[in-house]
Amino acid sequence: MSMSATSSAYEIKLDDSQSIKFGGYIKIDGRYVDGNIAYRDFWIGSGSVLPESQSQFKMFANESRINTTYKNGDVTAFVEMDFYGGGGNEIISNSSNPRLRHAFIKYKDVLVGQTWTTFMNTSALAETADFAGPMVGEAFVRNNQIRYTRGAWQFSIENPESFGGDASQDTAPDFVAKYTHSADWGNVSVAGLFRSLTTVSGESESGVGLSIAGKVKTTGKDDFRFQFHTGNTGRYVGVVAAQDIVGEEAEESTSYMVAYRHFWNDTSRSSVFYGNITTDITDVDRSHWGINYFDNLTPKLSAGVEVGNFEMAEQDADSNYVQFSVKYAL
Questions:
Q1: How many CB atoms lie within 10 A of CB 97?
Q2: Potential cystine with 169: which of 55, 151, 198, 314 (Cβ 3.0-4.6 Å)?
Q3: Sign of the CA dihedral 35, 41, 44, 48?
Q4: Which residues of 126-158 are buried (b: 16+ CB within 10 A; e: fewer)?
Q5: What is the pLDDT of residues 139-196, one digit of tens each?
Q6: Other CB atoms closer than 10 Å to residue 283's CB: what's the count?
Q7: Is residue 306 situated within a structural domain?
Q8: What is the mean pLDDT of residues 128-134?
Q9: Distance of CA 299 to the CA centre of its chain
Q10: Which residues contact 42 (CB under 8 A, 6 or more apart)?
């Protein structure tokens, strides 16, 4: 048995076919926000509109996470937790409860458990200090699922949830099919989402969504990331900015996100990003932009600052923020 340290985890070799890897990171954030949208540690595409602008400063470590990977031949098991599970208070302890993020088993080409929806292209997420980033324009949800991968193709049946309707009567899983083309210049994925949604009166409504996303290398180490989604994507895109069902109808939304990351040198980089979502029934028009700077002080320790704005245009509300972050990879 031997132990080795990498930039992202510590691995214990049990024998030639078995290993256990421990990873994660510790992240401390300080955030100052000024505006008239109520929020806490990060913005998830929605929030109460305050009668007037307010300012607030907070520090928190909830994004910190730990994970474990077990490998035995063709079997991989992975579990990860962070600390956005609620609990505690800021009067005495600042304690936070663990929250399950991922828990899945993978055998050869089949994955079973909770992880990122197959509808996502995780390489197309912007690098941000804000935990959520421009989620209003990103596909971002973790689902329990059964996924089959065959080369560039992935197919999955995933846990249904009629957000805004009567989820207690959901009787069919969501279906996702995705094709990803990868090359030296990066990757582009096209994904389709097929759903049976349940309205508040128990009626069934069909939902179909489309996603195009990717990450393209430009000059040097720089890259451009993009996402575009349309149709009945509901809770799969924008977090809670758009519902699946509004009354007796399936909501339609259009969303996009663009981000450019530039490396100033071998250790420092910046990203500028923008995300937006609009809907047809609730007339949502919400956006989030930001620009940041990160520097690796050591191979595992980084620090950064980000300034940005999130807006709910349909309610004439917005907030500006400045966030400082320090992150140590375990």
A1: 12
A2: 198
A3: negative
A4: bbbbbbbbbbbbbbbbbbebebebeeeebebbb
A5: 999 999 999 999 999 999 999 999 999 999 999 999 999 999 999 999 999 999 999 9
A6: 9
A7: yes
A8: 92
A9: 24
A10: 130, 131, 132
Contact criterion met (CB below 8 Å) for 8 and 329: yes
Count structural domains, the chain.
Answer: 1
Distance CA 226, CA 216 (A): 9
Q: What is the DSSP letter of 139?
A: B
Q: What angle (nearest 5°) sits at the alpha carbon of residue 298, between those of residues 293 and 302?
A: 30
Residue 8 in tokens: 């992202």
Q: Note whether residue 5 is domain-resident.
A: no
Token pair for residue 235? 């809770």
SS3 label, residue 12:
strand
Beta bridge partners, 52, equal none
Retrieve residue 306's tokens.
């980000």
Mean pLDDT of the chain: 94
The pLDDT value given to residue 6: 38
Indicate whether 2 pLDDT > 50.
no
Please state the pTM of the whole predicted model: 0.93
Q: For residue 91, what are the contacts with CB-CB under 8 A and spacing of at least 6? A: none
Range of the domain at 74: 25-329
Candidates 323, 316, 258; CA nearest to 286 is: 316
Per DSSP, the residues of 175-219 read: EEEEEEEEETTEEEEEEEEEEEEE-TTS-EEEEEEEEEEEEEE-S
Determine if residue 239 is left, alpha or beta; phi over 0 gives left, psi from -120 to 50 gives alpha, anything else beta. Answer: left
Instruction: Report the alpha-carbon angle 263-266-272, nearest 5.
Output: 20
CA distance 7 to 329: 7
- Establish if 17 belongs to a structural domain: no
Residue pair 276/287 in contact (Cβ under 8 Å)? The answer is yes
Asked whether residue 4 is assigned to any structural domain, the reply reads no
**Which CATH number goes with the domain that contains 186?**
2.40.160.10
